[in-house]
Amino acid sequence: MVTKNEPNYMVSTKQLSKTFRVGTGSVEVLRDLTLNIPKAQFVVLCGPSGSGKTTLLNLISGIDRPTSGEIMVADQALCGQSEDFLADFRCSHIGFVFQAYNLVSTLTVAENVAFPMEWQRKPPQEIQARTLELIQLVGLEHRETHFPAQLSGGEQQRVAFARALANDPELILADEPTGNLDAKNAEKILQVLNLLKAKGKTVLVSTHDLQIRGLADQVIALKEGRLAGFDE
Known about the structure:
- The chain is of the alpha/beta class.
- It has one domain (9-231): Rossmann fold.
- It has helices at 53-61, 83-93, 109-119, 124-137, 153-164, 183-198, 210-213, and strands at residues 9-22, 25-38, 42-46, 68-73, 76-77, 94-97, 171-175, 202-206, 218-223, 226-231.
- A six-stranded mixed beta sheet has the order 6-7-8-3-9-10, with helices on both faces. A four-stranded antiparallel beta sheet has the order 2-1-4-5, covered by helices on one side.
- The longest helix is centred in the last third of the chain and has 16 residues, at 183-198.
């Protein structure tokens, strides 16, 4: 039983499996996955489409629940926790950058970035200062009052990164963050990832981008829901 992370591990899983119901049948997406992700490392998750990369990120973030097995993140067991607990835990400890951005369409750039801090009821002045800092970090000061529909895909992804960093999380998860971007916007995302690595953040990125892979301290390969190898 995984009861406590080893001191140097941000994520520990033991025989982690996930099966989805599809009509009258089922699809096993992850199978008996046991792995450890050290703190303060930049880890790349790779593998063909359908290998289970996004599902693993969703399980680590507590967005999804495993069918079986155990998972620890930042010294906290996630299995069996309530949805309210998991939502608060994500907001405090995890920054998630989704492939589809997942911005709130009715909120401006600044409001999207501020939202995680408002969830934690931080002081308004602190929220305002941190929001401006993050918008400047991703180079979108000129878009502060715009809505997601008024932004390009690359700009939306940069807002998503700023929002993910709002509460200075211990762990950053990113699902194909440059997969839909042109070279210019991909370079801006690479700059942010480089900064997170330099700051000693634990970063887990699902990607096929060779430039991002070049930042990795460790590469974890998945194939058909199982570990296919490590490269350190």
